[in-house]
Amino acid sequence: MNLSLGLTTSISTGMVKWLTDILDQIGVYGVWVGEDIGKLQDIFTLTGTILLETERVKVGIGVTSPLIRNHTTIARAAATLMEISPRFRLGLGVGGLQDLTLMGLKVEKPAKLMEESINLLRAVWRGGQVSNLRLGLTDYRPKYYVDGEIPIFVGARGPRMLRLAADHADGLILSGPKKYIEDTVRSISGRLAERRSRFTFVLWLPTIMVQSKGDLNLAKKTVAIVAADTPDTVLEQAGIQMEMVEDIRGRLATSGVEAAAEHVSEVLMEHLCISGSADEICERFLEYSRVGVDEVVFGPPYGRNPRESIEKVTEAWRVASEVWNQHKF
Amino acid sequence: MRTLIEYYGERFELCIGPGDRDNLRMVGIDLERISGIPKMILEAKNEISEHLDRVGLRCRVWLGAQGPRMLKIASKFDGALLNYSDPEMVAWALNKIGRPYETRKWAAGIFAPAYIYREFKPEIYRVLRFASATVALGTSEHVLKRFGLKDIVTSIRGQYGSKPFSTSVLRMVPPTVTERFYILKSQEELPSYIRTLESLGIEQVVFAYPQAISLETIRELGEILEATSKE
Question: What ipTM did this prediction achieve?
Answer without folding.
Answer: 0.84
